[in-house]
Amino acid sequence: MSIVEEYREWVSTYDPTPPKPNKTYNKFFWWRRYQEHKFLPKMANIFEKAKNGDYEVSPYWKQIQYEHYFEEQELEKFRTNYKGSYENRGWAERDVSKLFWQRRKRLLTDAERDEHARWQLLVKDLKTCFGGTEDEIKDMFESFEGTMVEFITAYRDSRDLPKIQPVPKF
Fold first, then answer.
1. The model scores a pTM over 0.90
2. How many CB atoms lie within 10 A of CB 147?
3. Please, which residues have CB within 8 angstroms of residue 115's CB and are 6 or more apart in sequence?
4. Average pLDDT, stretch 19-31?
5. Would you say the C-alpha torsion 49, 50, 53, 54 has a positive or negative sign?
6. How far is CA 25 from CA 21, 22, 29, 108, 167, in A?
7. Which of 127, 145, 149 minimizes the C-alpha distance to 136?
8. What is d(CA 23, CA 105) in angstroms, rounded to the nearest whole number?
């Protein structure tokens, strides 16, 4: 299958509409529309954490993209229902857009903070389980292509740790 055929297949299945928000309103985190990711406990196995998505890209990046879609919907609804004068329409549209700008700004801050925390968690867990330094992990991570479970397995194998031998039975 060529790249063009793969792209056509992807476009035919791609749905740009974001999922409906399933979260109740929280006045302290009003800019978040979706549930937060539930991390496993810190004593959980590193492979279970990887399968759970604890080390994956922050979901806030996707929410920022969704906000563009929601803003277009809101502006379209505003334009069809606007009854004021034509001169004030631009300012009124900016008032509608301002909320989405603020929401995207706060989501961006959350995404950067969450991304850094996830990276620190990955480095800490890898160093605890398999040893090594942060620079070694970073160098291998930048050149690696694959899933997070594959990366953890490859890092474990690159460390040349002794294999655990079963206890002999007498």
1. no
2. 12
3. 57, 58
4. 67
5. positive
6. 10, 10, 8, 19, 55
7. 127
8. 20
Return the closest-CA partner of residue 11 out of 20, 3, 19, 23: 3
* Biggest distance spanned by C-alpha atoms of the chain: 93
Phi, psi of 26 (to 5 degrees): -125, 115
H-helix or E-strand containing 3? helix 3-13
Tokens encoding 102: 């603020």
| Cβ partners under 8 Å of residue 29, min gap 6 | none
Q: C-alpha 15: how far from its chain's center?
A: 18
Amino acid residing at 11 = V
Count each helix (H run) and each strand (E run) in the chain, helices first.
Answer: 6, 0
Helix axes 148-158, 134-143, angle to 10 degrees: 130
Instruction: Name the amino acid, one letter, at 113.
Output: R
Tokens standing for 12? 């035919």
Q: Give residue-wise pLDDT tens across range 37-81.
A: 888 998 999 999 999 999 998 888 888 888 888 888 888 888 888
Q: Reduced to 3 states, what is the DSSP secondary structure of residue 148?
A: helix
